[in-house]
Every structure is written in structure tokens, then in C-alpha cells.
Amino acid sequence: MRKLICLLGLAFVVAVGAGCAKPVHKDWMAMGGSRSDATVKMGYVWNPQNEKPETSQQQAIDLATQKCQTWGYERAEPFGSTFSKCTSMSYQPFAGVVCYQMQAEAEFQCVGKLPPDIEDVSNKVTKKK
Predict the structure, then answer these.
(1) Cβ-contact 108, 74 below 8 angstroms
(2) Are strands 75-78 and 51-54 parallel, antiparallel or unpaired?
(3) I want to staple 46 with a disulfide (CB 3.0 to 4.6 A). Which of 51, 108, 111, 126 is the partner?
(4) What is the pLDDT of residues 27-85, one digit of tens each?
(5) Whole-model pTM?
(6) Beta partners for residue 32, in sequence order
(7) What pLDDT digit, counting tens, does each position of 7-17 carry?
């Protein structure tokens, strides 16, 4: 009986501990990009120990579109899927490896009108042939 009570107590502590992460709104931010490849990398970071990120896909598209428009493109479209990785971890006795910072990234393709200097290069190559 005593083992059962201890086991139930341990299960309760684990269940309560697993529910500690609170929903937190996270804004997307530019993490990188390439004008020549017409891609923008967006991302956000969070602490998985106490945060459960909530994001807006539309906010990511809008921000990526703004970045693409500075290069002369019309808009951005999601390119692939979002992936997450642990960027800060440590080893804790009895717990093993613990992640303290996660980073999610998504890539966007710039589409629409090409920037003028790229159009000029394309036209010069075509005219020489």
C-alpha cells in the first residue's frame, strides 16, 4: 500500500510538472535570407521549461513579405515546413540533458516582380544570344 501511495504521488508530481509550460505569444523575426536566392528565414525562440509558444503564421508571412518587398519582390510564400531545434542545453543529474532554449525557423520564398538589376542582367544575357 505504501508503495502504491508513493507511486501515485510520484505520478502526480510528474503530471503537474509536465503542465508547467504556459502558453506565450511569440512574434516572428527575420533570422536570415538571401536576395540572390529570393529567400527569407523567419524564426522565434522560447524556453521550453516554462513557455509553450503560440504564433501567427500570417504574421510570419506579412513580415517575410515586407523583407521581400525591400528587394523588389511582390510577396513571400511559405517554402517548406517549420522546424525546431534546441539551441541551449545542459546536463542535469537525475534529469539528463535539459533544453533551456528552443528555436523555430521557417523559410519563405520571395515571388513576383524581380528587382530591376536582376531583370537588367537577365535581359543582357538574353540579348547577347
Answers:
(1) no
(2) unpaired
(3) 51
(4) 999 999 999 999 999 999 999 999 999 999 999 999 999 999 999 999 999 988 999 99
(5) 0.70
(6) 41
(7) 444 444 444 45
The residue type found at 94 is F
Please give the average per-residue pLDDT across 1-23, as a whole number. 55
Q: What is the C-alpha to C-alpha distance for residues 64 and 111, in angstroms, rounded to an integer?
A: 11
Q: What is the mean pLDDT of the chain?
A: 83
Which residue type sits at 22?
K
Residues paired with 88 in a beta bridge = 101
* Residue entry with cell 516582380: 113
The Cβ of residue 33 has, within 10 Å, a number of other Cβ atoms equal to 19
The owner of cell 542545453 is: 89
Instruction: State the CB neighbour count (10 A cutoff) for residue 125.
Output: 9
* Residue 29: per-residue pLDDT: 97
Q: What is the pLDDT of residue 95?
A: 81
Determine the Cα–Cα distance for residues 107 and 39; give it in Å rounded to an integer: 7
Q: Residue 100: what residue type?
A: Y
